[in-house]
Amino acid sequence: MDLQEFTESNAPDDGGDGFQKENNRLLDIPLDGTVMVKAGSMVAYTGDMTFTGKSSAEGGLTGIVKEAVSGEGTPIMEAEGHGHLYIAEQSKKVQVLSLDEGESISVNGNDVLAFESSVEYEINTVSSISGMAAGGLTNVYLSGPGEVAISTHGDPLVITPPVYTDPDATVAWSANLSPSFEMNKKLEIGQTSGESIQMEFTGSEGFVVVQPNEEGSVTQA
After folding, report:
1. Which of 66, 47, 40, 33 is nearest to 137 (CA)?
2. In whole angstroms, what is the distance from residue 169 CA to residue 91 CA?
């Protein structure tokens, strides 16, 4: 492949509106205003932009999540201006979801990559796990309308409940679901399995998103 062919075949596609995937691991956000993105996710931009870091999860646009167990902040930043903003996170795959008015999704805080300024968000700690692993599990409740980008290790699997999942592999679930946690001591007879804590989703409506990777935030704490 010569130099011209290389540059042409890998040039960004600047057409269209809204969140666009340049490839499976790189998101292009055509920006004319503001957008919220995960801090440290910017890899490039064109045009004129400013970035304001947000350091806390408390109220308004002051932040997004506290990382489960460790308690360390996982801040977002507000990008403002015009041009094209390119973001990615550790080569994870990008999934773009469009939420209509009244639609909501709960996403693991570590997996939120970006969301439009029209999307409302609320920080929720799933406290029922706190007695099993210190710190609990922190999720971000996102409500439309607007686009949301989440990141996954590999291709996600979307399952209709009832289903049991590993908390470390669980990325998101529809907002109408309320998971519970349980200890499966049967798996702990003899050698430790590493699968003692499970999330239980009941009912027959909604969906749960899991990834083929365990990030180690809860059950490996």
Report:
1. 66
2. 17
Q: Which amino acid is at 204?
A: S
Beta strands in 54-202 (DSSP E): 65-66, 73-74, 76-87, 93-99, 104-108, 112-116, 120-126, 137-143, 146-152, 157-159, 163-165, 170-174, 180-183, 197-201
Residue tagged 């909604």 (tokens) = 206
**Which one-letter amino acid corresponds to residue 106?**
S
Quick one: pLDDT band at residue 184, thresholds 50, 70, 90? low
pTM for the model stands at 0.82
| Burial of residue 50, with CB atoms counted within 10 A of its CB: 0-12 exposed, 13-18 middle, 19 or more buried | exposed
CA 156 from chain center: how many Å? 12
pLDDT at 143: 96
**Cα dist from 16 to 20, 21, 31, 137, 157, whole Å:** 8, 11, 12, 37, 28
Buried b (16+ CB within 10 A) or exposed e, 193-215: eeebbbbebeeeebbbbbbeebb
Beta-carbon-side half-sphere exposure of residue 171 (alpha carbons within 13 Å): 24
Which of residues 128 and 31 earns the better pLDDT score? 31
